[in-house]
Design goal:
By secondary structure, the chain is of the alpha/beta class. Helices cover 51% and strands 11% of the residues. The protein has one domain: TIM Barrel.
């Protein structure tokens, strides 16, 4: 399927009524399995990719070329649309965001997110004017090349934040041209509903990042358009690995194998 067709499909998911699931594979194999299970679109995960390469999911730690090559491998593993976690755009300057999106389009991605986190512990979030300038530059190239841009307001992950300020920031991103809005770490279902009711573009919410979590139906009723899961599927897989390894070391037993997927089932899913 062509990238243009995938882009049309991805846009249509955001335009139709209701909510869609948008899980995050970390490599080609996990992408194939999620596709086989019936998901309509996928997103890369910087955290899951970082774990798989023994790296940290922090700004400045992951190399742009490596992240995009991982995105390419996932795109090539599935027929469904794939968007990417593009971190901070791999640079403070708006031109860096533009270049990142140009490269993302080249590897076949149909969308991606740019966050407003700086990587600086003393000033973790870009000032609003600078953040908007970055989104505006990313939006211009996205519209020109055909790319669904998600703008992320990260303050709830770093600061004791204010919901009105978050809504104002997200609406500024929407005015600057973002197609989807995303504020990870919102503290309650009521906060999520308030954001959805007071912004002008579709909202992505991440589940599995922290507790509590809410069901698809609860999030749909709150007005959420898209539900991603970040690195939580990778963490779940690694959790199973650690549990199995500890059983071997501590108990000298191998009962974990009874819970493992049979090889034949994995082969079926990969095909």
């Amino acid at each position: 399927m062509t990238r243009a067709r995938k882009l049309d499909q991805f846009r249509s998911l955001h335009e139709r009524p209701g909510t869609f699931l948008f899980p995050n594979p970390w490599d080609a194999g996990s992408a194939k399995i999620l596709t086989s299970l019936g998901f309509e679109a996928l997103a890369t995960t910087s955290a899951g990719f970082a774990f798989s390469t023994a790296s940290h999911d922090t700004i400045g730690e992951l190399d742009r070329d490596a992240v995009l090559e991982n995105g390419r491998s996932i795109v090539e593993a599935t027929h469904v649309p794939v968007a990417a976690d593009l971190a901070d755009g791999f640079g403070a300057d708006p031109a860096a965001c533009v270049k990142t999106i140009e490269l993302a389009v080249e590897v076949g991605l149909v969308g991606g997110s740019i966050e407003d986190a700086t990587g600086d512990r003393n000033a973790p979030i870009y000032p609003l004017s600078q953040a908007v300038e970055r989104v505006a530059a990313a939006a211009e190239v996205s519209q020109r090349l055909g790319f669904v841009l998600t703008a992320r307001a990260e303050e709830w992950l770093y600061l004791e934040s204010d919901l009105d300020a978050t809504i104002g920031r997200l609406n500024a991103f929407a005015t600057a041209g973002a197609d989807v809005l995303y504020a990870p770490g919102l503290p309650s279902l009521e906060a999520i509903a308030e954001v959805c009711a007071n912004v002008s573009k579709p909202v992505n919410v991440v589940m599995g990042l922290r507790q509590p979590t809410w069901s698809v139906s609860e999030l749909r009723d709150a007005g959420v358009k898209r539900i991603s899961v970040g690195g939580s599927l990778a963490r779940a897989a690694l959790g199973a690995l650690v549990d199995a390894a500890r059983e071997m070391l501590d108990a000298g037993t191998f009962s974990y194998s009874a819970r493992a997927l049979p090889s034949s089932e994995i082969v079926r899913l990969l095909e």
